[in-house]
Amino acid sequence: MEYNTGRDSLIIPEYGRNIQIMIRHLLTIEDREKRNHAANFIVNVMAQMNPHVRDAQDYKHKLWDHLHIISDFKLDVDSPYPPPIPEKLNVRPQHVGYSSKQIKFGHFGRYLIDLIEKASVYEDGEEKVAFAQSIANQMKKSYLNWNKDSVSDTTITENLADLSHGRLKLPEDIKLVAASEVIQRNIQPVGNRKKKFNTKKDMNQGFQRRNPRPR
Questions:
Q1: How far is it, in rounded angstroms, from Cα 73 to Cα 46?
Q2: What is the mean pLDDT of each run of 10 residues along the chain (215 residues)?
Q3: CB distance 10 to 17 below 8 Å
Q4: pTM (predicted TM-score)
């Protein structure tokens, strides 16, 4: 008995071993016309085995590329697309730069920090205060998402002033969204909760409805 551990490794595992064997067999077909016909047949089988690839743009091109890759780029057929270049497949993608900025209060998130930076450059006035109040309300919601306990408006306004380096200050009489309102929104309404199914009780009730007691 032959085990897979003793066979060649699968180049693209999602197509399976039989497809790889069929593609390797293509290399032994000397007649070019027959080889082209067999290659088109295998591509159609590959498409049937992975129907999700049809949702991608130019999925036929992708299948032909996989055909060449599995053949170790040794297949010589009249492909409707140029074969992929092996050197380009082994090129590592360019590193994506990540922000090195540290967030002092991680539960507020990067977007709120960016909003604070934008609001800080506004000229003093009603518009700046309204902008700062909206940010403070969102800060309170974010805080309560991580910590279900209540948080005072003083804590939020102090955090806002700290993150804005003193450029955003709210009036002392200003009111933020109530913590109870935020928590209530996060609680699932009772009407939307799934009813527990009591098999024995429900079966007895159904039987009684279908077979009422004689009076």
A1: 17
A2: 76 90 93 95 91 79 93 92 86 75 78 89 90 91 81 88 89 83 63 49 52 54
A3: yes
A4: 0.46
